[in-house]
Structures are given as structure tokens and as C-alpha cells.
Design goal:
By secondary structure, chain A is α/β, with parallel strands linked by helices. Chain A has helices spanning about 1-15, 110-115, 145-150, 165-170, 190-220, 235-240, 255-270, 285-290, 315-320, 340-350, 355-360, 365-370, 415-420, 420-440, and strands spanning about 20-30, 35-45, 45-50, 60-65, 70-75, 75-80, 120-125, 130-140, 160, 245-250, 275, 295, 325-330, 385-390, 400-405, 410. In chain A, strands 1, 2, 3, 4, 5, 14, 15 and 16 form an eight-stranded mixed sheet that branches. Chain A has an eight-stranded mixed sheet with strand order 6-7-8-9-10-11-12-13. Chain B is of the alpha/beta class and about 450 residues long. Classes of the chains: A alpha/beta (about 450), B alpha/beta (about 450).
């Protein structure tokens, strides 16, 4: 992994410390009240200090002339699995005790690639093998920082739920993959009825657990003798859900299961924050809007499994038109890199405007994650998380040129391209050195049966 | 296909015959006031295209057509050739996770006798969905790209997967859809299969082999050996047949190889790595066969050889992730432009089914990363037509060709562009699909 360390180092060295910066003459898509205009953005101390057609350039500020280019708020991916060393704890039906924050890998190259695609924030979720899955982490793509440095400080934590085919596919014994593969021991549930029961039972237990603690705390407050209840790390996150302190992000496909989950939440008095994938959301848009859940979907994925056969690319537009807050997500390290052009598809499928389209990957997911006070639009006081494109961000011909997070530049296409030759030369010299070493030491000392470490 | 009514109308059009009483055939019409993008020539604005009997009869500002001929007003619109996706599973794969609905990836090593066309389901929902985005023609591959896909038992061991078909996305039967049932023989060129450590766990769950490198190398060498033997056997059969050997029993596998050995039909060779591409070129040299390289993942010093030998490349998805973690983030997006600059003829393919409609966006991405726009457009129209030997019929808007055209409100490679009409052999094809039907149904829910 020597080469990876070098890449990480090279890119980390690119991160310039936050300085006063003015980006001038760009087409600014604020995604806020001020709409879209040609003008400037001033960044001070990592925050957006001023936005407008004409701004005062603070003395000593670095000025970037972005004539002909487009500046948008950093893209927010409401459903990602990058930078996580493990995704699914598939051995149990309720895995609320585990969380992504314990397995964050800040050296995952996907972070850098997401930056190169204009993503600055991602909701990194547990997998979909369980009806109630693990805890999620909202993170910023601060490539080069450690795991703690990636965390979106102050974001309300989440938990993953999953309905339909994935959780009912019995858990695999290795616990590694999204419910697929070799099942040796069947795991409840195996039907959508069972999925409903698992969630309802878990919240019934969580409510009892909540009451046990409430009784204890009340007794203690009154000065009565009381034995402290045993902590239950699986139920604690669910109590947080009941108390509105943790967001539910629920993987779902079919209209029936979507409705089922909304009704459970209604019965227990909490809200589903986002329905994830929600490919048949368009069939129950009315009910989703009435509950107040956000919907985070794919632009045009369909037919890869039976529960995706009624998926249509008009889903996002229908839900939007029927009053649902909609975002578009990736669920994929590849797709994550072009969420801007994924958003463009809602103009074709459903006739939404350019701004409505771009909102689905910026301000809308920010609202869904309740981080819209910090990110999602270019407005004074918000974090300077910005992406500069050479062309209209909704065009297939556009390329990300520069990306800032908290006013720090984390990606520069020119530097990436011009640095490639040096990086390749360094990699080659390291590989040559490695080959030379193994030649000197002979095959027996390689310690892995004589296999080269990087087979060609 | 001759259609007497159409011919009569043509005659009427030419002679300005005054008393045409019969109804106009649906594949005879004129598009007026339109911007034509022939692809093989410069754009012509405010012109007309006359289609008679499904063929382009006339292009020009002063095209004369009989009054009875259907007129389509193209004001503000653009006419492009229908796009060709040079590698898909359309019609073979309905719902990927459901084995019963998938007919790609047969069992066996050398299956040249298989025909993808005969398993294409003309009622597949993927057909209208794909064509709604401007794709009139697809190559249907008998197996997915790359070696060792191993999907549900089949495909893993295949070297020769069978005949890919060139098909129109219109027709009542697969037979009506087929342009050429032997468009190219699909071959997955053997390579040393290794599983990166980060995928090892997942691979094990799917039951993929995880032997040592030495074992993979042995398997590869064995497969190469078997491939040579298969070609030798096929050649012996070819000679015996040419010599009219009396006791020669017909062998369908070897029969299917004869057009390949004769150099009459190309072999579409899947080769991802630069090393594999080079080996495939050498192999084609030795066997004196015509090849097309497909699914290349990386640039390499093979490009000069491809140019020298006139071997085209079917480029895969340009949006894919790079191969290795230290490869440039835009590795796949820059590849088509690099190949073009090296003088290699390219076409694009999605190599899948559910995203076959997004072919134009893959091409546009290549433009963002260095491929000239005109070349991207050619790579989804005339180039694949030439590669598969049908450029006399499709791939551009020219007199005498089939009217495989799309009428759009803009650049077909841009996402927001809408296809207003599609003509396949002049047939004004229905652009509704499962998706538009569900859209309308649920938009109307109160």
C-alpha cells in the first residue's frame, strides 16, 4: 500500500489552508433566495462572507477569475458507502448497536474521487441486510484528514432501516455482504410481514426500555432507592429515534412497504426522516408528503431486481410535484462522481427546471440531513463548500475544476493532471525497488508462497 | 422489403400524379423545415427529408412530395441518424436478479454456434425504454463483457460466447428486428484472472475461485492452449469441407467458425487490459482473422498496432471507476479521446441492459475529457455501422439509406434533450414505454 500512501500525501499537500478568497465573474448558482447570477463570492475563515453581482474585495484576498465558469454549492450525497471498512452486520435482524463511525477509513481513494465529482458531503450508511441496521455518519470529504476530521461536526446522527428483498434475504453467516451469497442458517425475517414485525417488536422493546430508564431516573430524582437498569446498546439508538434525536434513513422499494413503515412510525410517534431509494415512492407520494418524510432516490436505476421493475425515471419529479422533499443519491462510489448530471435527468423525465434539478443534489439533501444551516446553498454565513465547473453543471460536457470545503481547496483539476507524470514515476521507482529487493532476497523470503504482491 | 404501395406513392411523387386515392403508407413521409445532421457531412439547416418506402429518397430545401404524403413539421427541431449501441444485453436480460429472466452467458467454453438473436424477447420492456432515448439499433451480445462473469453458472468458462446480433429496436418478432444475425462472433480473450484483495471476501461469497496467482496463470495458459487447438480443429474442418471430403460429419461449432476463418465476419474480442489487447492483436495476426476489440479498460502501447491493422475499438462506459486505486480518476473518460488521437476508429457500447438508453451520455463524457464532439457523434452512429458492415444502410442521413432517424429538440448527447420522433426503416416508432405509462397513471392519482 505504499503507492496509496503517496497519493494520499500528494493530495493532502494540495489542501491549502483557509484564506480570504474571492471567486469572481462566475455564474453563481446560489440555490438560495438570490437565485442564479453572474457575480462573485467572498470566502473568509472558511465561511461565505459575501455573495453578489458586485462585492468588495477584502484587502489581501486571493482573487480567482472564473469568467465563463459555474460555481455551485458542494454536492451532497444522501446515500453513500464510501470510506467504510465494513457495511453490513448481517448476522442479526436488528444491528442498531453497530455504527459506521467505528470503521471509517479516511484513506479510501473514493473520497478523493468523490471530490473530483464535486461532492463535499456524504451520508455514509450501514448496509441493507437488516430490517434495522447500524448507525450512519454524515461526513465531509476532507481528503487527507483522519477519521475524526471527516465527521460533519454537529450533524444529527442517523440509523439505517431496510425493507423488502435485502433484509428478507436471510443474513449470510460471514456477515460481510448485503444479505446475498451463501446462506447456511436462515435468519428471520423471510417475508415483508416479518420485516414489519421485526421493526414493530424492536420499537415496542425500545419503548419499554425507555420507560424503565424514565422510572429509574424519576425514582432517583425523588431520592428513592433504585437499581440502575442494564444498558442495552441495541435499544438505545431506537430510544433516540423515539425522542427525535436520531434520524431514520430507510432503504425501501415497493409502495406497500413504504406505507407499512410510515404507519409504524405514526403508531410510535416518530418521523421517518428519509426514505432511501424509494423507487415506488411515486405510487404513494401523497402518503409520503403527509407523513413529512424526505425521499432520496436514484435518477434512473431500474429492473436489476423484481422490486425495481416498476422503478421509473419520473419518480423524483412525481414526488417533487406532489409535495415531497426529494434528493438524488448515488449508493455507489462510481455514480457519486456525477450526481450533477444524474440531476439533469429530472429535466428530461418530468420537466423540472434547471434549478429544481440541481436542488436535488445540493439544498434538498442538506434539508433532509438538517444541515441546511451550514451547507447546500451559497449564502452568507454558510460553510464555504463550493464547486467550480467549466460549463453548466447540468451539461454532460462539464468538468469539475476546483472544490473547496470550509474554504480550503481540496481538489484542483489542473494540479491533478499536471502531477500525474511525477506520481507515475514515483510509483514506478517504488515498484522497481520492490522488485529489486525481492530479486536480491530470492523467492523464499517473500513469505506468500512466491507470489508477487502486485500481479500483473 | 418491397412495398408496392410505397412505390406507387414514390411514382406519384416523382410524376406529380394528380389522382392518388389510396392512403399513404406509414413509412413514406416528408420532414420539413428541419436541421439535418447527416454525421457524414456538415449540418444543413431549414431543409427537408423525403422518406419513401422506409428509405431516404431525397434531402434538400426544395423536395417535391405528393400532397397525400404525411408531413412532419421539423421547425426548431433536429434530425440525427438513430444511435447504435455497439454492445448490450437488450432482450436477453429482463430482470437481472431473476435467473429465469436472463438468457445471457451460456455454459461451455467454445460456443460459436449460439445465436443471441433467437433468444431476444421482442416484448421486453427494455426495448421501448432504450429506444425512447434515441437508440434505434443495438448489438445484442450472447454474454456480458469481460471474462469470468460467472453469472448463475454460465459464462465463467466461456472463450467463444456465440454470435452477436445487430438488431433494430422495432419489430413484432426477433426475426423482424434482426439486421444481421451474425454481426460479430463474441470472444472473451483469456487473461490471468486475479481478484483484488478488496474484493476477495465478496468474490468468495459468490463462489468465485480464489486460487493463487500461479494457479490463475496456469489456467490462463491452459485456456490459451485450448483456444489454439479449437482454432486448429476448426481450420481442419474448414479445409475438409472445402475439399468436399465425403465422410465429413457436419459440426455446428466448426461451421459457425468458417466465416471467421475466411475473414468475412469479425470476431468481437473482449479485452480489458493493455496486455490482453496486445495478445489479442497477435492472436488475430497468427490466425489471420478480422477482429474488433471491445471493453478496453486502459490505454497502452497497443494503439499504434490497432491503427496499423485497422482494428476498431468498442469503448465501454466512460463513467466507470478507474481500474486501480492509483489510476487517474478520469481514466475511463479520457480513453476514447486517447484512442481517437492515436488514429483508432471507435464506437461506444453500454455493455448492459438497464442503462443501454444512457449510451449518448457516455459519449458526451468522452467529449468533456478530450474526444472531439463530431467524433463522439460518429462513434454512436456511422462508426459502429461501418464496423459491423452495414454503413450502406444505417449510421447516417444519406440518400438511399434506411430512414433510421431521430427528431430531437437539441443535441442528442445532452441529457435534457428530448426525442420527439423516432423512425426505424421509416416506421414512426412509438416512444411510450412501461415508464411513461406508469408516469401517466400515477401522476393522475388524486
Amino acid at each position: 500500500m505504499k503507492t496509496r500512501a503517496i497519493l494520499a500525501f500528494a493530495a493532502a499537500a494540495l489542501v491549502c489552508s483557509a484564506e480570504t478568497l474571492v471567486i469572481q465573474n462566475a455564474t453563481v448558482w446560489t440555490m438560495g433566495k438570490e437565485g442564479k447570477f453572474v457575480g462573485s463570492v467572498v470566502i473568509t475563515d472558511g465561511k461565505i462572507a459575501a455573495v453578489g453581482e458586485k462585492v468588495m474585495v477584502p484587502p489581501g484576498a486571493k482573487v480567482i477569475d472564473a469568467t465563463g465558469q459555474h460555481l455551485i454549492p458542494g454536492i451532497i450525497d444522501c446515500h453513500s458507502h464510501i470510506a467504510a471498512e465494513a457495511i453490513n452486520e448481517g448476522s442479526v435482524s436488528v444491528s442498531a448497536m453497530v455504527g459506521i463511525e467505528d470503521v471509517v477509513n479516511p484513506e479510501d481513494i473514493s473520497i478523493y474521487r468523490a471530490l473530483a465529482g464535486g461532492v463535499t458531503t456524504a451520508n455514509v450508511l450501514h448496509g441493507s441486510a437488516n430490517s434495522i441496521g447500524g448507525k450512519c455518519e454524515v461526513m465531509k470529504m476532507r481528503w487527507g484528514k483522519d477519521a475524526a476530521g471527516l465527521k460533519f461536526e454537529g450533524a444529527i446522527p442517523g440509523i439505517k432501516f431496510a425493507l423488502g428483498e435485502n433484509p428478507k434475504r436471510a443474513g449470510n453467516v460471514q456477515g460481510g455482504l448485503g444479505g446475498g451469497g451463501n446462506t447456511r442458517i436462515p435468519r428471520y425475517p423471510a417475508t415483508r410481514m416479518g420485516v414489519e414485525d421485526v421493526i414493530r417488536t424492536a420499537f415496542t422493546e425500545a419503548r419499554n426500555y425507555q420507560k424503565t430508564w424514565k422510572d429509574y431516573n424519576e425514582k432517583k430524582a425523588r431520592g428513592e432507592a433504585a437499581v440502575e437498569p442494564e444498558r442495552n446498546l441495541t435499544l438505545e439508538p431506537l430510544v433516540e429515534v423515539l425522542e427525535g434525536k436520531r434520524f431514520v434513513h430507510a432503504h425501501c422499494y415497493r409502495a406497500d412497504e413504504i406505507l407499512m413503515l410510515l404507519r409504524i412510525a405514526d403508531d410510535f410517534g416518530f418521523k421517518i426522516r428519509t426514505l432511501q431509494h424509494v423507487l415506488e415512492g411515486y405510487k404513494v407520494a401523497k402518503e409520503i408528503a403527509a407523513h413529512g418524510a424526505g425521499a432520496s432516490t436514484f435518477s434512473d436505476w431500474w429492473s436489476y431486481k423484481i422490486e425495481a421493475y416498476d422503478a421509473i425515471p419520473y419518480n423524483a419529479a412525481i414526488m417533487e410535484k406532489k409535495g415531497v422533499l426529494v434528493s438524488l443519491n448515488s449508493d455507489s462510489a462510481e455514480l457519486m462522481r456525477h450526481l450533477n448530471t444524474e440531476a439533469a435527468k429530472v429535466m428530461k423525465y418530468g420537466g423540472l427546471s434547471e434549478e429544481e434539478a440541481l436542488a436535488m443534489v445540493t439544498i434538498n439533501p442538506a434539508k433532509q440531513l438538517a444541515i441546511d444551516n451550514r451547507v447546500g446553498s451559497i449564502e452568507t454565513g454558510k460553510d464555504a463548500d463550493l464547486v467550480l465547473y467549466d460549463k453548466n453543471p447540468l451539461s454532460n460536457y462539464t468538468k469539475v475544476q476546483k472544490v473547496w470545503i470550509d474554504g480550503n481547496q481540496y481538489f484542483d483539476r489542473d494540479k491533478d493532471v499536471s502531477g500525474r507524470a511525477a506520481l507515475a514515476a514515483e510509483k514506478k521507482s517504488l515498484e522497481d525497488k520492490e522488485k529489486e529487493e525481492s530479486r536480491r532476497q530470492g523467492p523464499s523470503s517473500r513469505g506468500n508462497g512466491g507470489q508477487p504482491r502486485r500481479p500483473e | 422489403m418491397t412495398k408496392p404501395i410505397g412505390l406507387l406513392i414514390a411514382a406519384a411523387a416523382l410524376c406529380a400524379f394528380p389522382s392518388v386515392t389510396f392512403a399513404a403508407a406509414s413509412d413514406t413521409f416528408v420532414v420539413r423545415n428541419v436541421s439535418v445532421h447527416p454525421v457524414t457531412g456538415p449540418q444543413v439547416d431549414n431543409t427537408s427529408v423525403l422518406v419513401i418506402d422506409g428509405k431516404i429518397a431525397e434531402i434538400g430545401p426544395k423536395v417535391v412530395a405528393a400532397k397525400t404524403i404525411k408531413v412532419i413539421d421539423g421547425k426548431g427541431l433536429h434530425l440525427y441518424p438513430g444511435m447504435i449501441n455497439a454492445g448490450t444485453e437488450v432482450g436477453l436480460d429482463e430482470i437481472n436478479a431473476i435467473r429465469e429472466s436472463v438468457d445471457a452467458n451460456e455454459i461451455g467454453e467454445f460456443d460459436p454456434q449460439l445465436h443471441a438473436t433467437v433468444a431476444v424477447n421482442p416484448s421486453s420492456e427494455h426495448i421501448p425504454v432504450t429506444r425512447a432515448n434515441g437508440i434505434t439499433t443495438v448489438i445484442v451480445l450472447p454474454a456480458t463483457v469481460g471474462g469470468g462473469e460467472g453469472r448463475r453458472g454460465g459464462g465463467a468458462t466461456q472463450v467463444i460466447s456465440g454470435q452477436s446480433g445487430l438488431m433494430h429496436l422495432d419489430g413484432w418478432t426477433w426475426e423482424e428486428m434482426t439486421i444481421n444475425r451474425n454481426a460479430a462472433m463474441e470472444m472473451k480473450f483469456p487473461f490471468i484472472q486475479t481478484i483484488p484483495a478488496r474484493f476477495a471476501e465478496m468474490a468468495a461469497l459468490f463462489g468465485m475461485p480464489r486460487g493463487s496467482y500461479a494457479e490463475s496463470k496456469r489456467n490462463y495458459e491452459k485456456t490459451i492452449q485450448q483456444t489454439h487447438e479449437f482454432f486448429e480443429d476448426a481450420r481442419r474442418y474448414q479445409k475438409a469441407k472445402a475439399a468436399h471430403e465425403p465422410n465429413l460429419a457436419t459440426n455446428l461449432r466448426y461451421e459457425a467458425m468458417i466465416p471467421i476463418l475466411d475473414g468475412k465476419e469479425p470476431m468481437m474480442v473482449m479485452a480489458a487490459k493493455a496486455k490482453t489487447v496486445k495478445e489479442a492483436i497477435d492472436f488475430a495476426d497468427r490466425e489471420k482473422i478480422k477482429i474488433v476489440i471491445a471493453g478496453v479498460d486502459e490505454m497502452g502501447d497497443y494503439a499504434a498496432k490497432l491503427k496499423e491493422k485497422n482494428i476498431p475499438v468498442i469503448c465501454g462506459p466512460t463513467l466507470e471507476l478507474p481500474n486501480e486505486e492509483d489510476d487517474p480518476y478520469d481514466q475511463k473518460a479520457t480513453l476514447p479521446g486517447q484512442l481517437y488521437k492515436a488514429g483508432v476508429k471507435i464506437a461506444f457500447a453500454s455493455f448492459d441492459v438497464e442503462f443501454a438508453r444512457n449510451l449518448p451520455y457516455q459519449a458526451a463524457t468522452a467529449v468533456a475529457y478530450g474526444l472531439p464532439y463530431e467524433e463522439a457523434l460518429k462513434a454512436v452512429t456511422i462508426n459502429p455501422a461501418e464496423i459491423f458492415g452495414v454503413s450502406d444502410r444505417i449510421g447516417s442521413i444519406e440518400k438511399g439509406k434506411w430512414a433510421d432517424m431521430i427528431l430531437t429538440d437539441g443535441d442528442p448527447l445532452e441529457t435534457k434533450t428530448e426525442v420527439k420522433h423516432m423512425f426505424i426503416k421509416g416506421h414512426d416508432v412509438d416512444l411510450t414505454s412501461r415508464h411513461t405509462r406508469l408516469y401517466e397513471k400515477y401522476m393522475s392519482r388524486q
